[in-house]
Amino acid sequence: GTEFTSMAILRWCQETGVEWHYIAPGKPTQNAFVESFNGRFRDECLNDTLFSTLVEARSAITSWKEDYNRHRPHSALGNITPAEFALKSTLEKQAA
User: CB atoms < 10 A from the CB of 83, how many?
Assistant: First the structure.
């Protein structure tokens, strides 16, 4: 159940040194980026498709993810794709 999942995640955070931040109940704006992504993913992928098998679901989700990250410009990133943004950031760090 969820309590076992939660305990596993908390244990992983402790082992890896990742900080865990809780979102207050009823305050989704505290994590607006994830809320926005989840809504877009649900609207554009999950609600559009009735999956018959796990393989079919994985294939459709992979296709959507590739489009989202490699082909679709994002206004929050200066109208470039996340892949271009990551490459640009990496090159800037190497040049510094």
Answer: 14
The token pair that represents 69 in the structure block: 């990250």
DSSP state letters, 46-86: ITT---SSHHHHHHHHHHHHHIIIII--BGGGTSB-HHHHH
For the segment 43-94, what is each residue's pLDDT rounded down to a tens digit? 999 998 899 999 999 999 999 999 999 999 998 899 999 999 999 999 999 9
How far from chain centre, in Å, is Cα 67? 13
Rounded-to-integer distance, Cα 64 and Cα 36, Å:
16
Listed residue (59, 64, 63) closest to 42, CA to CA: 64
Q: How far is CA 50 from CA 13, 16, 53, 65, 90, in A?
A: 34, 37, 9, 17, 38
**How many angstroms from the chain centroid is the CA of residue 75?**
17
